Amino acid sequence: MAELSRDDLIYDWNEVGALPRPTHKAEFDDESLRDGLQSPSVRNPTIDQKIEILHRIADLGIDSANLGLPGAGAVAIEHVTALANEIASAGLALDPNCAARTLEADIRPIAEIQQATGVSIESAVFLGCSQIRLLVEDWDIKKLLELTISGVEFAKSQGLRVMYVTEDTTRTHPHIIDQLYRAAIDHGATRVVVCDTVGHANPRGVRRLITHVKQIIDETDPTVKLDWHGHRDRGLDVVNALMAYESGADRLHGAGIGIGERAGNCPMDTLLVNMKLMGYIDNDLTGLMRYVEAVSKYTEVPIPKNYPVVGSDAFETATGVHAAAVAKALARGDRWLADRVYSGVPAGDYGLEQKITVGPMSGKWNVIHWLKSHDIEPTDDRIRAVFAAAKQSDHVLKDAEIHSALSVVTAS
Fold this sequence. Notes:
The protein is an alpha/beta fold. The protein has helices at 6-9, 47-59, 74-90, 104-117, 131-137, 141-157, 174-186, 203-220, 237-246, 268-277, 288-299, 320-331, 335-338, 364-373, 380-391, 399-411, and strands at residues 27-30, 64-66, 95-101, 122-128, 161-167, 191-196, 225-230, 251-254, 316-317, 355-356. The strands form 2 sheets. The protein has an 8-stranded parallel β-barrel with strand order 1-2-3-4-5-6-7-8, surrounded by 8 helices. Strands 9-10 form a two-stranded parallel sheet.
């Protein structure tokens, strides 16, 4: 049988009859240090810890990061100032932004930090706009337009770039969206953000909404950039972000391991992995584990064991048939093959590797691989001893338990 090329080994149904690929550059805005910290379960990291997270964000080639909401008070101002100074002093390739309501009291501190640090900061001025919010706040469209225009104009007057954000865009009537975005762009916003604030959208709705907003931009100022900011209340966060990009969004927002209010934000790590697997980006993601570990450690949010790519179980198998296939690929000396024979994500691309463990569902290949990887000759007696211990266990064996089983063979 003729040797197959790597391209022939995997038939990719994802690419069969695929629509034309987007040609615009994909950008990313990391919200780990702002929207991510709105979760009721997180611990607010110290300045030094936030600086380390900031470096991990930059290591992944992420374009921008939200540094916080300075209008929240003195602590927030101190932290944002330190992060802006770190971007400048360390030469990080990150474009910073800060959140603010469309109020002078929120916008002014951003301008003061920009002035004090000499770092250009994009102001992300946000405003609730859906009918359900209007009812609760007793607002009308006239009030929204006044807040939009005054907020954008004040930010511009302070020398700030303006990213105009509508909250709950995915549940807002088009006549409201149209008026607000046109007003924001007419008065100086250079970027607008569509938000799925409560995770309401599905991919079809994302496509329709992004297409609609793109048309507004094209009719007002085609140079204005469009962002997507999504949450995962329905678990559609990653697929919605992918759809937003394919529909024309320039920049996608996310947070490390999806931290954030309620069910959280779109997880930046999983989003980057999928964007790379789909060929939309070519970022070096070998630092992905360092990024998620920093976010997890300093916010005290654990990474679930079965979390995609960076979870401890993501590239580990204790199942006999699966482990045998991986082990045989490794025995061929082919890590490319081992990374793909039982995995849809190549571990090596993210600085990780396949791991074979031994448990009650294991076969002899698991045992043989474990012994070889620990420089122990896989004799029949050793294989039988470990295999028997695994079959009697109700969990994957720890190394100490395997050594204990082997000690019986050695003693005999």
